[in-house]
């Protein structure tokens, strides 16, 4: 694999944001040292390299840390522009559109599904399920435009790119939550474009190599529930 300088990644295996960065590094063919980090008990490295937010991922390039997954992915794409396939679209409007929906994913979809996991009551969980389904319904609308009604295999075109990574890094958690709570989030009748896209994304070489098994997410979810408390799954 290609490499330039010293690269380290502080991460958590089941973090969607870490998965996003690992996908970008894989697409670019970059070698790096991966350091699994206990985010429930902040370690010395994490506190040293991300003292502001104290969270992963943190990419350390030649001793200099970069934080926030969207920023890291864009940095990787710019610094190693000649390596691998481009991640951000070349067209300015398409690039802005990809960034817009990536922000939507982080601001709406992620907090909603995380709320399902940590909800203190079944009523609160049901509300978060509704928010998650609403966010996915909105992404189905975006997919109609970005996928050209299904004519394009990925948001970026013929191969995965910035928005594919932004959405795709959450998909293994959708399956983990289905196994835990029995809720199907991607439905061929309601979100057919996303269902077809998710199947193609999961079959890519990058996703096969990087995306964690949903069972690992379920195991971590149990730890979060034990630490923070949440309503047990309904029978």
TrEMBL record:
Q: Which residues form the GST N-terminal domain?
A: 5-84
**Could you confirm whether the keyword Membrane appears in this record?**
no
The residues covered by the GST C-terminal domain are 91-230
Q: What is its EC number?
A: 2.5.1.18
The UniProt entry's GO CC annotations, sorted and at most eight, read: cytoplasm
The GO terms describing molecular function are: glutathione transferase activity
What is the similarity comment for this entry?
Answer: Belongs to the GST superfamily. Tau family.
Q: What is this protein called?
A: glutathione transferase
User: What organism is the protein native to?
Assistant: Triticum urartu (Red wild einkorn)
- Source lineage: Eukaryota, Viridiplantae, Streptophyta, Embryophyta, Tracheophyta
